[in-house]
Hints:
By secondary structure, the protein is mainly beta.
Amino acid sequence: MRALLRLVLTGLVLLLMGAGPGYCQSGYDLYGSPRAAGLGYASTALTSGAGVHTNPASSALRQQWSFSFFARESYGLAAFRYGAAHGTWPTSWGTVSGGASTFGGDEYRELHYSLGYARGLQFGTSRTVYVGLTGRYYHTRIDGYGSAGAIGLHLGLLLPLLPSLYLGAHATNVNAPTLTDGEALPQTLSVGLQYRVGPRVRILTDVFKDLSFPVSVRSGIEVRPISMLALRAGVTTAPVRFTGGVGIRLGRLRAHVAAEQHQELGWSPSASLELRW
């Protein structure tokens, strides 16, 4: 019975998290933070994102050290709890980032560790392209069945088209890592735009493709009625999800909460706390 329960739990994790039956890893680590969740996960061109999910190039725009914590529980199920910590350290020669996260419960557990580097490359006198590379170690353990690990490489690019318009691109697991024979890690590609309507409104749109699933369109809007408060809303397709969130900025602290509503599976709340200095 316990073996059957493990198999059912594993199957639910893989299916509900969108990884598909061929994946031994859920890919949940690519979902992101409450800020990204509130924007319908449209974070490819987000120039101020923080977390292990972000475009690897985005940390090149960071001017402060930062450290953040993130937690989420999907669909009210303890077995689908996720937690992450992430930090960025800007230097004169580029920005270093690193993080760790965990997903699952006692019988099914995923661990992820990442290390990244990003910097701006100047072309001519006025054009700067931001590029980034992140290496991520994935480890999955299923109680009674053993464990396996693999290293994936993620690439990112941010290009300012106008002062108010950024183009972003993000590819994950470009080296096609596998945990075991025939069980690949998710490979994804996303291209997105960020448009700032003045200092208080930000609009983002992504086209997201997992190689094993249909194309998904993700869109979100962030409005700051006052400097310390951000209101967010977003929507995704394939599957259809509606999201919303709130961010608060108090000096060096940033706090974010969000909720996602899946048409069949219900609500998933998340929260994070970030410190900058």
